[in-house]
Specification:
It is built from 17 helices and 36 strands. By secondary structure, it is α+β, with helices and mostly antiparallel strands. The protein has 3 domains: 31-167 and 202-218 and 235-290, 3-Layer(aba) Sandwich (Rossmann fold), CATH 3.40.50.880; 321-684, Neuraminidase; 760-844. The chain has a 9-stranded mixed β-sheet. Strands 12, 29, 30, 31, 32 and 33 form a 6-stranded antiparallel β-sheet that branches. Strand 1, helix 3 (71-85) and strand 2 form a beta-alpha-beta unit. The chain is elongated.
Length: 845
């Protein structure tokens, strides 16, 4: 007989399905506990308690829908519990016919072992009634885990509830409340603790009425980590174990029982053993209902003090875990600083701090745009390393985002505008009396997290900022705006000793990024290169307040990956161990940690980020209010960390009502923790902070000497001040420094200072092409660009560098050639690629 093609497909499908089902049933029936599991159960079975007689228990283990692999382990547990304690003899069956009235006459109790959807086995009204009547007339019933999954109304009434999902998955660890610690079934389990942690899959129930059972264990809903998605009970009453009377019979129910290890958990076995004794009539125990303890319920809205409270500085120190040899030294605390977000220094080492006094003062962000924030100036008058003098330098500001001290003024940029103002303190009392527009950029809107930040004076004498497609610089007393290709950096900006700018992206867990090449040349294309696992973090706090919910956290509620990275700084100081120089430090305020990343350059010139530690961080804290948001190399040669020190770090747009993070904040009372702030200095046991600078009172010649300073902050500041002064008399000294200094960093800064004074000429650059440091050669190539823009024949000056062996030089040649597309620049680029045929990295330019 011939069949149509579609008919053949249907026959094949159902034949395969039947075969698969038969094989599955055969395999599941054959599963047994492993020798290791058997041994663990043997060691965990509770001690013998003399019983009145040896009872008979029927263990029914048929799963009609989802099959739990722990069924085999549970059967072994029941066998050993009966034999070792002498309490009962267990018979085992998968046949629903054995639940008939005739067969059940032989048993004192039925143990339903993860028997999902039992109604599919007891298919007739007669079978169902016989089973229910068995219990009603005095039989015992133990229902473990999935025995509550399914059934019919009469069955649900007998058991006490019906499975309605498992918000608490089997991989998580959850806090369980022992509601009745003196009850003989749960007395003494988990050392008698009122609450304990358990790793298992936990059910929620419909058709459950606390008034009809005696709840023994429940999910402790005072712990926010238990507030998983998918919960359906408005009363937050999630019972996990209970007893009840059903007619003359007794019932014991346990939600735990999914994971294998539960079957050799000594405390769970102790509870189950007593549960068996109860249903067998060996143990008298209360079955009258009790109210759920208030301590196991979420606090009522508006009636709670914050669970998370502020710690004293001493208590916070105890909460830190810092790498060996390092410590955090408190430099400024509230009220010296309040809601700090940025710290910078002027040429005399006075610290300027942006205070965001209106940021998230409640969960709705009320008053965020009120202009009452400020920039304060902090000083250490007595020289003990702690700020002891404060003045309000500029007030009535709208969330000031950027601060850049110049020579006799300070640039400040606020939120919701691209304008930058210059503030003057004419009488040097620490309070600005005058301000004027320095750069007019116009109004802007957007979330406060997604607006420009940075405004750093970079090595190339341009001022860079995030969230922009331009850069700025001073030339002959005027502000020049230069085009860039844009960037996606967020909060913070830094540069390394070569002047390479690095951004950070807080969104989507990306973390620190840097353009493959400087974004003055090519379209923003981060191409961040990170070692495997770099985005994984190792926090130690246990506050479940990550915006991504429990899926973005570990079982202990700590963050497990980047979610809010910010405030990066390349360490360039001289008063910490040398192996920190050039390392990237940035923060994860949601995870309450500071990451140290080593930057390693591969053979093609790619810079790859590596966590400096194996499954660890530079700084972690269990203090929920530790919120590091910025960092910087200080004038004293150490690293500074700005701790906003508050409960909520997310902006209101990311904490809408009804969201996980909104519930978390209200639960812990984090929104009540505001108006504090701290600034720390990273110290090492073998180093002392350096001397305070006095650059604002020094001559240009004296400033030139600082270009050789081992601390990058001093070199940057000296370069900036020389250029602002515009003093051409120091040019001979600068050229001599480029020519003869043994310090490559001094030569590099001197070269860029000459550029900043607009005194670079092509003949001088040709001599610099021969410098033995590739970073300086690359800088000289950049400075050649204006010349071949004016006269393309000058491109020939770069031909001598085509065969340079260092990848930094090759990369810069290609980038510079890309700024003006001509036959000459194409030829230059082609020569570079021909010299480096195996370097695929260069081909991406």
């Amino acid at each position: 007989m011939k069949y149509p093609f579609n008919t053949i497909k249907v026959i094949l499908f159902y034949t395969t399905l039947i075969l698969f089902t038969c094989v599955s049933v055969s395999l599941t029936a054959a599963k047994k506990a492993t020798p290791e599991e058997i041994q663990k159960i043997t060691e965990a079975i509770p001690a013998i308690i003399q019983s009145a007689k040896k009872y008979k228990v029927l263990v029914f283990s048929k799963a009609f829908t989802y099959y739990h692999s722990s069924i085999a382990v549970a059967k072994e547990m029941a066998r050993q519990m009966g034999e070792k304690t002498g309490l009962f003899e267990a018979d085992f069956t998968d046949d629903p016919k054995d639940l008939s009235a005739e067969n059940l006459k032989n048993y004192d109790t039925v143990y339903l072992n993860n028997s999902t959807s039992i109604e599919r086995g007891l298919t007739t009204e007669k079978m169902r009634n016989e089973f229910i009547e068995y219990v009603r007339n005095g039989g015992g019933l133990v229902a473990i885990h999935a025995a509550t999954d399914g059934g019919w109304p009469g069955y649900t009434e007998m058991v006490g509830g019906n499975f309605n999902g498992h918000p608490w998955g089997h991989q998580g660890t959850y806090c369980i409340c022992n509601e009745d610690p003196k009850h003989p079934i749960v007395n003494g389990i988990f050392d008698g603790k009122q609450s304990f942690n358990l790793n298992d899959e936990l059910y929620q129930y419909k058709d459950f009425d606390r008034k009809k059972v005696r709840v023994l264990l429940s999910v402790d809903m005072s712990k926010f980590e238990n507030h998983r998605g998918g919960r359906k009970r408005e009363d937050n009453d999630y019972a996990m174990a209970w007893v009840k009377e059903f007619g003359k019979g007794r019932v014991f129910v346990s939600s735990p029982g999914h994971n294998h290890h539960i079957y050799w958990n000594k405390d769970i076995l102790k509870m189950w053993y007593q549960g068996f004794r109860f249903v067998l009539g060996e143990l008298d125990a209360e079955t009258e209902s009790i109210q759920k303890p208030s301590y196991a319920l979420p606090p009522k809205e508006g009636e709670q003090a914050p669970i998370v409270r502020f710690k004293t500085p001493e208590e916070s120190q105890e909460s830190f875990k810092v790498q060996p040899g390092y410590s955090l030294e408190l430099v400024a605390d509230n009220p010296m600083v309040t809601e700090p977000t940025v710290c910078v220094w002027d040429g005399n080492g006075r610290m300027y701090v942006a205070e965001w006094r209106t940021y998230m003062q409640d969960i709705n962000g009320t008053g965020t745009n009120d202009p009452v924030s400020q920039v304060v100036r902090l000083e250490d008058k007595n020289g003990d390393g702690v700020m002891d003098h404060k003045t309000v330098f500029a007030k009535d500001l709208l969330l000031p985002r950027m601060i850049l001290p110049l020579l006799d003024s300070v640039l400040i940029a606020e939120s919701n505008t691209n304008d930058i103002f210059e503030y003057f303190d004419r009488d040097n009392d620490g309070v600005a009396e005058e301000k004027k527009i320095w750069f007019e950029g116009g109004k802007r809107g957007g979330n406060v997290e997604h607006q420009p930040s940075g405004l750093i004076w970079s090595m190339d004498n341009w001022l860079y900022l995030t969230y922009s497609d331009y850069r700025l610089r001073l030339r002959d007393g005027k502000v020049i705006k230069g085009e860039t290709k844009g960037n996606r950096g967020q909060w913070g900006l830094t540069q390394d000793n070569a002047g390479k700018v690095m951004y950070v992206d807080a969104g989507a867990g990306i973390g620190p990024v840097h353009p493959l090449f400087p974004n003055i040349y090519t379209k923003w294309h981060p191409k961040w290169v990170m070692a495997e696992g770099f985005r994984e973090v190792f926090a130690i706090d246990n506050i479940a307040d990550s915006q991504g919910g429990f899926g973005s956290m570990r079982a202990n509620n700590s963050a497990k990956s980047f979610t809010a990275t910010c405030g990066q700084a390349i360490f360039r100081g001289d008063r910490l161990p040398k192996d920190l120089i050039g390392n990237l430090f940035f923060h994860e305020p949601v995870g309450r940690l500071t990451r140290r990343a080593k930057i390693k350059t591969d053979s093609m010139g790619r810079r790859v980020l590596h966590n400096a530690y194996i499954e660890d961080e530079f700084v972690t804290s269990s203090d929920a209010n530790f919120r590091p948001v910025n960092s910087a190399t200080g004038p004293d040669g150490t690293l500074y960390i700005v701790d906003m020190h508050r409960g909520v770090v997310q902006e209101s747009a990311w904490v809408p009502k009804g969201s996980f993070i909104h519930s978390s904040i209200k639960h812990y009372g984090l929104d009540q923790n505001v108006q504090r702030g701290r600034i720390y200095r990273v110290r090492h046991s073998g180093f002392k902070p350096g001397a305070r600078p006095n650059m604002l009172n020094e001559t240009s010649s004296e400033l030139v000497s600082h270009l050789s300073h081992p601390n990058g902050w001093w070199r940057d500041e000296a370069q900036k001040l020389i250029i602002i002064k515009g003093d051409q008399t120091v040019l001979p000294a600068l050229r001599q420094l480029v020519k003869s200094s043994a310090n490559p960093l001094a030569r590099l800064h001197a070269l860029w200072t000459i550029e900043g004074l607009n005194a670079i000429d092509l003949d001088f650059l040709k001599t610099v092409y021969q410098d033995n440091d590739p970073t300086i050669r690359a800088a000289a190539i950049r400075m050649t660009e204006p010349f071949f823009h004016q006269e393309i024949s000058s491109i020939s000056a770069l031909q001598s560098l085509v065969s340079d062996p260092h990848h930094d030089v090759a990369i810069q040649l290609l980038l510079s050639a890309s700024t003006k597309v001509t036959p000459e620049t194409r030829a230059l680029a082609g020569s570079v690629l021909a010299e480096n045929p195996s370097n695929t990295y260069l081909k991406e330019i």
